[in-house]
């Protein structure tokens, strides 16, 4: 602010020059710099903020003036006009001050609070003093309702900004945020920040951050994914501020978005400060107590043989920074790392459903940190071990979790290098089993122990075989032939699932070409796909590439997806299904029982058919209704797992299109199926 305040007085002068003719205003105005008394903890020396007060002279009330202005006790008029003058650039911390000010001037643009007319000391019908001073601006500037007033203030911030209430409901956003998220102003005002504007993986994190903001009042930082109106996800680094009213009560919060192509949004090894980590751990623990279906994990990482390794390092600070950067690269953006002491790195894994998910993160970090560190002219190789605690496990105090995680790390360091130990013995046994199966599956792919089996799918009206469903099997050296349900649930927690399913697609498509040489080009193949692969960018392109390599028609491939996926990932699958449909590949919903998605919602997806759960197959009334709906929509109904003739007859009577199961044909390997099809055809 200039020493003489010339620009401020010029702005006040503009306000006075636009006053109404009948306004009595001849007092000198007073500029009060920074106004710390009115806006505690909001405006400070770093912000160009002041309050301009102008008080008219006290005058005896005459007959001429009576009825025109409010009369106060004592027979004199004693009132004051106040407005806040702000010169850009506007800072986030000052938003609360602006929202509690009667009027705001930002470089001569004037905005009045919509609740001015509700002041208790104002007589009905009397002109407000703020109106008297600023009324001339009405012709040139819009005086708005609450959300528009907020948006006008936010519009002076260059970065995308959203404002909302304490329960997460959105109040408004500036033009930059609307451009980023793709919502209209109306649609944005119907959303909730913690639910609608984040991907599923980050909703719990935003809920925790908002709770921490309201509890502590401290500015929060997080890395998240903004979910746009088109269902896309934009990685962003976000700072969240709490703004209070004159009495210190929470007024609203503002979230300031910084889109980033880097998933971390920062190269800082301390992506989460100590207090952020501690607050997040407390709220994750409280949430796990309130919601039994919510789980998270606490990891603590230590360097193997630290007493021998660390003395070799001259610049240990630089080494720990490099180690932290590599560690953070392996985390999701909702995970929070922090150094709580000089040699141990703690990580909060938010919303991890089971211990296997935590082990996978630890494995990724172990692989990343195993690469040589370049320190000056030399290289250093280190290995790391982990202690892990899963919650909930009857924990009520985060200090107990930290203690148990540290104890688990101690056990891991005693066992050798690159160990992962879970504090709970039962969970540790589960993790050990996962690691063995994962390692075994990688070896099985190398040693050709994985194979494909197929089950014919029969057209019920003609009794002919029209296609097959492919199943993966593991020909284990000691345990014999293992069905997919024995090992795939473990594989889906690991990147090995991508290798397995890529191999299965190549193997099955090559087999389908041979089947079609017997049965014709209309013979189709049903492929099961994991959720991780279905959501993976590039999966459809890789599938269609294999289809064309084998000279197959895309319509001969049918992907099977789970019904519950459509409930929890509906928006993402809408775009994925559009790609699949464009490629010509068919989609059927597997294990359909109408518990996760209604029949009325199925038209949102380009589906070819439904594979009915056994519960629906056993209900003739439901079957008849489904058959009628399928007939009108063009969907086909497939009944898997048919084991007896009675059910088969019922399915035929009620218009089911296809069926499969031992009552029709068993599951068999490729060679046996080729013989079976040849007999069927002959």
From TrEMBL:
InterPro entries: Cyclic-di-GMP_PDE-like, EAL_dom, EAL_sf, GGDEF_dom, Nucleotide_cyclase, PAS, PAS-like_dom_sf, Rev_trsase/Diguanyl_cyclase
Domain PAS: 146-217
Limits of the GGDEF domain: 294-425
GO molecular function terms listed in the Swiss-Prot or TrEMBL record: cyclic-guanylate-specific phosphodiesterase activity
Chain ranges passing through the membrane: none
Record domain EAL: where: 434-681
Classification via PANTHER family: CYCLIC DI-GMP PHOSPHODIESTERASE PDEF, SIGNALING PROTEIN YKOW
Name of this chain's protein: PAS domain S-box-containing protein
Species of provenance: Desulfomicrobium apsheronum
